[in-house]
Amino acid sequence: MVAVDFDLKFTYVLAGWEGPAHDALILADALERNDGFVVPAGKFYLVDAGYAVRPGFLPPYRATCYHLTEFGERVPQNKMELFNLRHSSLRITVERAFAAFKNRWRIVDNKPHHPYPSQVKIVLACCILHNWIL
């Protein structure tokens, strides 16, 4: 799990969970750790529809147009669609950060044959270097 700022930097990284783990479980783990993820007062993080509504986290409205391609040229029809359109537009920042990260650090996308503890350290090291380079 990562949190990303608008400069495409990782502001929080929790490496070590397996790919198929549910996002909500990973977030709960991050929030419960002593040195875990903290949402600053008055701030919010965008999350995808797999997360429940909870203080500090804003998922999109469900069963409402969300992806930019779903809107095409049409304007949002209500407040929920407008929120989802803006949510989707901002979420592209996260996708850009991951694209830059994976393009720069091919080792994290190549399914390396390193022991699991080493894989976690590799991901963390690449995240640190990613932020340092930016």
From TrEMBL:
<keyword id="KW-0378">Hydrolase</keyword>
<keyword id="KW-0479">Metal-binding</keyword>
<feature type="domain" description="DDE Tnp4">
    <location>
        <begin position="2"/>
        <end position="131"/>
    </location>
</feature>
<dbReference type="InterPro" id="IPR045249">
    <property type="entry name" value="HARBI1-like"/>
</dbReference>
<dbReference type="GO" id="GO:0046872">
    <property type="term" value="F:metal ion binding"/>
</dbReference>
<dbReference type="Pfam" id="PF13359">
    <property type="entry name" value="DDE_Tnp_4"/>
</dbReference>
<dbReference type="InterPro" id="IPR027806">
    <property type="entry name" value="HARBI1_dom"/>
</dbReference>
<protein>
    <recommendedName>
        <fullName>DDE Tnp4 domain-containing protein</fullName>
    </recommendedName>
</protein>
<comment type="similarity">
    <text>Belongs to the HARBI1 family.</text>
</comment>
<keyword id="KW-0539">Nucleus</keyword>
<keyword id="KW-0540">Nuclease</keyword>
<dbReference type="GO" id="GO:0005634">
    <property type="term" value="C:nucleus"/>
</dbReference>
<dbReference type="GO" id="GO:0016787">
    <property type="term" value="F:hydrolase activity"/>
</dbReference>
<dbReference type="GO" id="GO:0004518">
    <property type="term" value="F:nuclease activity"/>
</dbReference>
